[in-house]
Amino acid sequence: MWTPSDRVFGGLTTIGGLCTLVATLPARWLGPRPTDSYVFDPPRFSALWFERTVVPAVAVAAALLILAGLLALFRRDRERMARWQRWFAVVAVVGVAVGALGTMFVVSAGPGGVADPTATLNVLLGVGFGLLGLLLALPGLLAWGAGHLRSGRRRLGAALAGGPVVTLAVLVVNVSAGVSFEGVGGLPIALPVALAVGVVGYDLWDGSA
Amino acid sequence: MTSDTQLIIEESDLYELYSLLADATDAAATGVPTVHGDGTLVPTADGLVALDARDGSRRWVADVAATLPAVADGTVVAGREETVALDAASGDREWSASTRAEFHPVVADGTVFLGTYSQLVGLGLGDGRERWAVDRGGGRTFSAPVVTPETVYTVERPGEAGDATFALDRDGDGAPEPRWCSYVGEGAVTAAAGGHAFALQAGTTDRRLVAFTERFGEATWGYTAASRSTPPAVLDGGVVTVTHRGTVAAVGGA
């Protein structure tokens, strides 16, 4: 059976990083976005169409590609990792998988959001899975990255540990210090993640293990 | 009322109209008169009365209850418990349909548009047969629509929630498809012109006139009067409204 090489997974993971950026681009950058009314069937390539059609698909693709990249990284490095690092890596991968499931639940609710009971349940389940995924992925990635830093693989270690830490720091600044990201959407939060994912993708592509 | 059939009556003309009505019939007016050619259709307690606009003589009277009759292509459409079409010249009944409009009927391009208790319904003007129905479920009442060549505007009243203004794409003879909707409070779309729909938003103490763009339902401007205002008329590209205290306000236009 053909098994994709690490290079293939590296490329896919890098695309996942790009998808993360695309999914968080502010829709208003692409044109005027009506806010006073709900538009049922926005014209193709309009800001609303991008938000309703492109963003959900790209967000799911990003979550799945990042999960695939981490799985490939774990498969490649598992023999050389310490026992504790391996367990944390498993926790991180499970966390990202749960987060991807949460993304799919939220996306399945559609643009109406909480318009009907099923959509409301999907959003609640999605948010729940997302928080659970975050709780698992955050310590998992930190420890997985710390292990690589200790073993001298600074680039990969910094990406795995630094991506979540910087993202968390940006979130804290946003919420507690009241720094507004108006005008740039979710980019300040997504950028560290996208960079970290890009580095993981490059590491897989480069085959420097 | 379609966007191009708004009528502004001078106060002196209005007195004359009611004077003509008093001469022609003893019955009290029960609705809003409609001017058609050289005649006037007046809903009264005795039925729908057609008057000659020149001398006020009565042309015919039909046993039809109405609030605001619609006229197009030589046919008068009116009704409360049922929808009835009459020959505009003779008053003879052409057809009747059991569909009951919650408000007055609107006629445009050979179709009778009716806002009913649960649906927005389109009947053929020629035969009264149902051509299409927009049903969004849940017993939502639809207000009398405002029809433009591209769009049908109506207000959906769900009962358990606030009213919502709807713009629906007209698709040939098929059922209009929802394009956008917007919460307007307890109000109604009352006119449309120049790529805009004009809705009256009801507040606790006043009424606000809001202009929505036809394409995406963006609220481009609003006008709040010191007292409640009447539904607006579109005149020379502007919007004219009158408050209950007698203030006439004109927005935009020539």
Descriptive labels:
heterodimer, A: mainly alpha, B: 254 residues, 4-stranded antiparallel sheet, 6% helix, 48% strand, globular, disordered N terminus
Description of the structure:
The complex is a heterodimer of chains A (209) and B (254). Chain A is mainly alpha-helical. Chain A has helices spanning 6-23, 47-77, 83-108, 117-150, 154-176, 187-206; one strand at 38-39. In chain A, α1 (6-23) packs antiparallel against α2 (47-77) and α1 (6-23) packs antiparallel against α6. The longest helix of chain A is centred in the middle third of the chain and has 34 residues, at 117-150. Chain B is mainly β. Chain B contains one helix and 24 strands. In chain B, the strands form six sheets. In chain B, strands 13, 14, 15, 16 and 17 form a five-stranded antiparallel beta sheet that branches. A four-stranded antiparallel beta sheet of chain B has the order 1-2-3-4, covered by helices on one side. Chain B has a four-stranded antiparallel beta sheet with strand order 5-6-7-8, with no helix packed on it. In chain B, a hairpin with a 2-residue loop joins β5 and β6 (75-78). The model of chain B is unreliable at 1-7 (pLDDT under 50).
Give the gist of this structure.
Chain A is mainly α and 209 residues long. Helices cover 73% and strands 1% of the residues of chain A. In chain A, helix 1 runs antiparallel to helix 2 (47-77), helix 3 (83-108) packs antiparallel against helix 4 and helix 5 runs antiparallel to helix 6.
